[in-house]
C-alpha cells in the first residue's frame, strides 16, 4: 500500500509501505476512504513529539470500511463504514472504566500515528475495534464524520467542558485554526454572552466570525487591553488556548478574570512560563488534557441531526495520492487559507 511516513523532523514521504495485518483478536483492518491532517501531525514533523519515531505512518483521523476483523471483534463487521477515533480504548483498565480513554493503561490512548502506524495510508490496523470505532449512519457523509475523529471531541471536551463554559459567560479562544473554530462551535452550545477569537492571521479571524465569534483580535500588544475593555475590565470567564506555543498560553493566562478558567488544548513542544506572581491571588483554574472521546457518540448524533455545518470546516479537498500537496497547503495555512483539508480514496 501507499502511506505517509515520518522520517524525522521536517521529513516525510508518500511511499510504498507494508500492508497492515491483524495482530490481536480485537483488531480490525480498515480501508481508508477519507482522511485528514491534524495540527498535531505538524507538531510531530517539527520534532515536538519525541515518542513518534522515524518510520511511523502518521495520522489519527479517518473514515473507512472494515475489510477484515479479528475473532474477538463483535461490534463491527466486514463491510461496515466506520469512524476510526483518534483515541483507542482497551475498555477494561481503570481509566477506561471511568471514561478516561485518553489515559488508557491497556495499550490504548493516543496511539494511532503516534506510537503505532496511523491512518494516513490506504489501509490501517485499528486496535480494540469494538471500543475504538463507530459505525456511521448513511445520513453522515465521510467528510462530516472526519470532524468527529478528533477536532470536535477535542475542542468540546478539553476546551469547552473542561473550561466549564456556562450560559452568559465570556469566552476567549486563542488560536482560530481548526481546533479553535471547533471550540467556538461547541462553546455556542452553552450560549455564552460573548466569544472573542484571537489569531494573527486575518483570514482566520474572519473565519472565526463566520463560525460565531462576536469579535476577533490580533495577538498584539493591545490585545489584553481590548479584551479587558469588552469584559468590564475583568477579563474573560474562560480562556481556551488552541495553538500550543508558549506565547499563546501566556496570553490566555493574561486574559482570564479572577475566578476564571484557562483550558489548554494546544500541543506544546516547548516550556511556557507560568506567571504565578500574577495568578496566585486570582483563584484561576488551569486545565490541560488529552481528549478522551467520551463525547463522540453524542456529537455523532448531533451531526446526523444537522447541528454542525461540517462543510464550513473543510476548505481544501484532495485525492489520497495527493497527500504531499495536502500537507503543503495545510502547513502554509496563513497563505492558503486552509482550515481543514480532506483527502478521499479515488
UniProtKB/TrEMBL annotation:
On whether Metal-binding is a keyword of this UniProt record, the answer is yes
SMART domains reported in the protein's UniProt record: PKS_ER
Question: What is the required cofactor set for this protein?
Answer: Zn(2+)
Q: Which UniProt keywords apply?
A: Metal-binding, Oxidoreductase, Zinc
Q: Which PROSITE patterns match?
A: ADH_ZINC
Q: Which residues form the signal peptide?
A: none
The GO terms describing molecular function are:
oxidoreductase activity; zinc ion binding
Q: Name one Pfam family in it.
A: ADH_N
InterPro entries in UniProt? ADH-like_C, ADH-like_N, ADH_Zn_CS, ER, GroES-like_sf, NAD(P)-bd_dom_sf
Family the UniProt entry places it in: Belongs to the zinc-containing alcohol dehydrogenase family.
Which PANTHER family does the record match to this protein?
NADP-DEPENDENT ISOPROPANOL DEHYDROGENASE (PTHR42813:SF4), ZINC-TYPE ALCOHOL DEHYDROGENASE-LIKE (PTHR42813)
The name under which this protein is listed is Zinc-dependent alcohol dehydrogenase family protein
According to its UniProt entry, this protein's organism is: Actinospica acidithermotolerans
